[in-house]
Write a sequence for this structure.
DNA sequence: CCTGAAGTTATAGTAACTCGAAAGTTGCTT
DNA sequence: AAGCAACTTTCGAGTTACTATAACTTCAGG
């Protein structure tokens, strides 16, 4: 069975050694072992679990809730219904987050096009200083 | 011309008064006025600009970069090319973020289905305690 | 005039990292 | 054998973006 050091885990997961230790210190990796020098020893399933943590973290779940979920997993199958609810919740949250991001993306795209247009119309060296409290300025910018 | 207090702005934007003040203190709202009691006075274009800030913030731009972008907008039209690059960059970032979230969502959906299946197969009261260091446990969970 | 609601500043607390220092083990290398 | 590089450890401090609290001012209504 393969084992890994923090650095190796960091390389495999894309996390930093700091973050991996942070997660371990906060109980998110309950099965990590220690060798005779007190160094952390990770297994393949620890790495897989770290990927699950990354998934939850990236979709906005706070550390203490991931900790709670981890505890439920360790506790066994009788916690499946609770875990099901947690995941369902996380699914909803993520769907919403994606929708929001798509709307923001539309706003950004509009801006990009807007700037592109300005740069097309103005000749390369014909930009003029604009009035600092010009309504155009912030209003056009914000819209 | 309509003006607004912090609280009104908070209501209109969905931000908290704390956050609005925080943004103002950090130079993200360069045109906010003060009345004789030193209270902040916001205009409609300030609110629109706050919505732009929210867009950038939600798509991951840090405060100091938003500050920088704000300064460019205030500076005038000669900064349009730089602003264009910033927005293009932000667009790319957001597209990637959405892609990542969609992948994580797939993982979460898989989990939801997995749990649903377990709950279907097991009768309501037939959950058994599982071995705490069961390979099944973390491995199945992580996958 | 008093109370209450809103505003102000300054300061402290929080989450999730992020980093640096000091110290301990290894394994090589001169 | 000594030393040095490359790891690891813990601990404590720093960072970002809020979030909350304390202490104060100001004003409108009863």
């Amino acid at each position: 069975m393969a084992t890994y050091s923090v650095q190796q885990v960091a390389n495999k997961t894309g996390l930093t050694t700091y973050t991996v230790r942070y997660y371990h210190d906060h109980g998110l990796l309950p099965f990590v072992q220690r060798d005779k020098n007190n160094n952390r020893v990770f297994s393949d399933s620890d790495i897989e679990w770290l990927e699950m943590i990354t998934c939850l973290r990236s979709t906005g779940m706070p550390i203490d809730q991931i900790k709670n979920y981890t505890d439920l997993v360790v506790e066994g199958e009788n916690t499946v219904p609770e875990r099901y609810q947690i995941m369902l919740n996380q699914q909803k949250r993520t769907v919403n987050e994606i929708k929001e991001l798509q709307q923001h993306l539309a706003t950004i795209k509009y801006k990009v096009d807007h700037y592109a247009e300005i740069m097309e119309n103005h000749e390369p060296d014909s930009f003029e200083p604009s009035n600092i409290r010009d309504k155009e300025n912030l209003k056009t910018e914000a819209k």
